[in-house]
């Protein structure tokens, strides 16, 4: 019987599962793994990142972009510890991945050896499955099991590989379970559930749809649009639901929450029925009235009723369920909430559009994102970092056709953009990849420009330099009402940094300069960085949304925006149908706000 090193047996399992690349950074405890990297170099490409966190975030991004798990590794001690951010990102966003974590030799474990710690205990919470090989012969077995568990539990699986086991010869006779891996095929809804849901839809006065990333995974975009057209329901989404329905669809009013547009935040409290589709946003507990009726569709029973009381729970595939409801229900006329939502959205869109040719300095967001919308290819991929860039992306990028995007959703870790761009360029080498990042987030992972340059990845890195941690600044001002603390960051010439990391860098200050730089990159073969000297003004606050306050209107140049009460009155949306409370009457003067200590941070 032929024998191979334990680490080679691991790579053979990866290859049999059709893994063709792996992210990582070498270390002494992973020498056997690096030997396997060399042995398998013609079959599994090694993407050598400059930081293990980048490798883990890249692996997490892979499933989000492709539906196929990513694989990364780190050495014992600091290399292992650097993986945690990527693992938690994958765990929170339900992204299958495998992390291989090196350990010291078995004879050196549990005696406070160099770079040793109790990896199995530390990684247990950061993963959905974690095992250390107890014998060399177990290595291919637990590798196969790790992949199966990552897919089954939709999260990160961790394999701990002692250094000596990776070098040990074992018999080369393991057969993987790859052929037993089949695509998810969830059941359709029960007839009784469909009948109950259709009854609520028929009786509702002001129904809406609230969908999330589960609708994306179900491929339910067309069904959502047909459902909206038939039952005349506005479409609201979580942030991770952006792109399931193209942004230009008239009844899609956007994302609820701080990063979203004005309309979805205003209409959610008027709804008397919510069709809740594949959505687990934790901030949903803050939205919709407690008496609002809910039809919830999800494939995970643990999600049903988690964020709101539910009247009709449907444990079934979103695409199949929406189709069943469309076929079973009767057409509805346009409701007051439907008319008001579309009119309010049109007002919001026109207001944003009015700034696309603004010559304000530093440059406003709208001119820049207008260029991105016009220049990005129909199949472009956007790697979005975390911060105010999420706000601008959510409100201003018009997703369409085969465009894809990814961000760090529930974990919301800054620095995600560059690693995700590595992934996009690796798995889609023939497509445009745009990294969009604020200067705060970009500063955390900018070393990965070296990786992009090394592999000549066609990535456009756009850094919005506004010299502040803008998202946190707005939280301190609008939520906790405190003096600004720790948010100001120094200006930096990121173009020079890029030049020092072997790629072209450009500083731009105007829409025209940005447009010219983008067109230059589109003619290039490799990566480029554009440092935009961006406005220091904060995005319109949908949390405050005080259009009756002249100071608020002046601050955001919002003279052309109408308060939602205007559209509520116009279309007869008299009161919140769920609670009976009038939502657009004149209110008493409010006292000075107290700090918000209940909602938490980063409401997306």
Key descriptive features of the protein:
604 residues; 24 helices; alpha/beta; single chain; TPP_POXB-like; 6-stranded parallel sheet; EC 1.2.3.3; TPP_PYR_POXB-like
Describe the fold and architecture.
Helix 3 packs across helix 17 and helix 14 (336-353) packs across helix 24 (564-570). The model is unreliable at 577-590 (pLDDT under 50). The chain has 24 helices and 20 strands. It has 604 residues and is α/β, with parallel strands linked by helices. The radius of gyration is 25 Å and the shape is globular. The longest helix has 18 residues, at 336-353. It has a six-stranded parallel beta sheet with strand order 3-2-4-5-7-6, with helices on both faces. Belongs to the TPP enzyme family. Its EC number is 1.2.3.3. Residues 583-593 have a biased composition (Basic and acidic residues).
Write a short abstract of this structure:
With 604 residues, the chain is an alpha/beta fold.
- Cα-atom radius of gyration: 25 Å
Uncertain stretches of 5 or more adjacent residues: 577-590
Distance N to C terminus = 55 Å
Derived structural class: alpha/beta
Helix content: 25-40%
Number of helices: 24
State which percent range the strand residues make up.
Answer: 15-25%
Write the layout of secondary structure elements.
Elements: E1 3-5, H1 6-16, E2 21-24, H2 31-39, E3 45-48, H3 52-66, E4 70-74, H4 78-81, H5 84-92, E5 97-103, H6 119-124, E6 129-132, H7 139-153, E7 156-162, H8 163-167, E8 169-171, H9 191-203, E9 207-211, H10 213-217, H11 221-231, E10 235-237, E11 252-255, H12 262-267, E12 273-277, E13 293-298, E14 312-315, H13 318-328, H14 336-353, H15 365-375, E15 381-384, H16 388-396, E16 404-406, H17 417-427, E17 433-438, H18 439-445, H19 449-454, E18 459-465, H20 470-478, H21 494-500, E19 504-508, H22 511-523, E20 528-533, H23 550-555, H24 564-570
Parallel strand pairs: 2-3, 2-4, 4-5, 5-7, 6-7, 9-10, 9-12, 10-11, 12-13, 13-14, 15-16, 15-17, 17-18, 18-20, 19-20
Antiparallel strand pairs: 1-8
Helix pairs in contact: 1-2, 1-7, 3-5, 3-17, 9-13, 11-13, 14-24, 15-22
């Amino acid at each position: 019987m032929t024998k191979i090193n334990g680490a080679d047996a691991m790579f053979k399992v990866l290859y049999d599962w059709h893994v063709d690349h792996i992210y990582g950074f070498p270390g002494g405890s992973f020498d056997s793994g690096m030997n396997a990297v060399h042995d398998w170099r013609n079959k599994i490409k090694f993407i050598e990142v400059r930081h293990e966190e980048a490798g883990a975030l890249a692996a997490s991004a892979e499933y989000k972009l492709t539906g196929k798990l990513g694989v990364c590794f780190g050495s014992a001690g600091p290399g292992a510890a650097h993986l945690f951010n990527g693992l938690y990102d994958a765990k929170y966003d339900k992204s299958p991945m495998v992390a291989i974590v090196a350990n010291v030799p078995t004879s050196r474990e549990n005696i406070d050896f160099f770079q040793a710690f109790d990896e199995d205990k530390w990684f247990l919470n950061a993963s959905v499955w974690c095992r250390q090989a107890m014998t060399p012969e177990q290595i291919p077995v637990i590798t196969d099991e790790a992949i199966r568990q990552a897919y089954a539990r939709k999260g990160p699986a961790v394999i701990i590989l002692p250094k000596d086991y990776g070098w040990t010869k074992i018999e080369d006779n393991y057969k993987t379970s790859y052929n037993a891996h089949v695509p998810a095929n969830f059941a359709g809804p029960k007839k009784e559930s469909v009948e109950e849901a259709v009854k609520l839809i028929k009786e509702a006065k002001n129904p809406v749809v609230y969908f999330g990333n589960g609708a994306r995974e179900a491929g339910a975009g067309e069904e959502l649009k047909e459902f909206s057209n038939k039952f005349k329901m506005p479409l609201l989404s979580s942030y991770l639901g952006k792109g399931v329905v193209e942004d230009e669809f008239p009844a899609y009013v956007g994302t609820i929450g701080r990063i979203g547009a004005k309309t979805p935040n205003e209409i959610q409290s008027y709804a008397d029925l919510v069709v809740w589709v594949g959505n687990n946003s934790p901030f949903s507990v803050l939205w919709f009235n407690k008496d609002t009726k809910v039809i919830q569709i999800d494939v995970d029973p643990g999600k049903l009723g988690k964020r709101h009381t539910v009247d009709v729970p449907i444990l079934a595939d979103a695409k199949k369920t929406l189709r069943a409801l469309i076929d079973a229900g009767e057409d509805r006329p346009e409701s007051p909430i439907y008319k008001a939502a579309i009119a309010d959205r049109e007002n919001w869109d026109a207001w944003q559009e009015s700034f696309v040719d603004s010559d304000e300095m530093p440059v406003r967001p709208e001119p820049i994102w207008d260029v991105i919308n016009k220049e990005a290819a129909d199949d472009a991929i956007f790697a979005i970092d975390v911060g105010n860039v999420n706000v601008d992306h959510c409100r201003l990028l018009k997703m369409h056709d085969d465009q894809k995007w990814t961000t760090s959703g529930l974990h919301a870790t800054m620095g995600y953009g560059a690693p995700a761009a590595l992934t996009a360029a690796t798995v889609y080498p023939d497509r445009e990849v745009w990294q969009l990042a604020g200067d705060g987030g970009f500063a955390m992972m900018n070393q990965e420009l070296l990786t992009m340059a090394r592999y000549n990845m066609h990535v456009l890195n756009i850094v919005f330099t506004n010299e502040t941690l803008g998202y946190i600044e707005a939280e301190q001002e609008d939520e906790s009402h405190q003096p600004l603390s720790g948010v100001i960051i120094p200006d930096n010439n990121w173009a020079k940094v890029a030049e020092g990391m072997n790629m072209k860098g450009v500083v731009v200050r105007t829409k025209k300069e940005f447009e010219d730089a983008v067109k230059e990159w589109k003619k290039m073969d490799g990566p480029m960085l554009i440092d935009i000297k961006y406005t220091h003004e904060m995005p319109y606050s949908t949390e405050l949304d005080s259009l009756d306050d002249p100071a608020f209107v002046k601050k955001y140049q919002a003279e052309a925006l109408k308060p939602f009460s205007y559209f509520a009155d116009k279309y007869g949306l008299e009161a919140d149908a769920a609670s009976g409370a009038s939502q657009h009457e004149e209110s008493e003067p409010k006292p000075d706000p107290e700090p918000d200590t209940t909602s938490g941070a980063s409401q997306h």
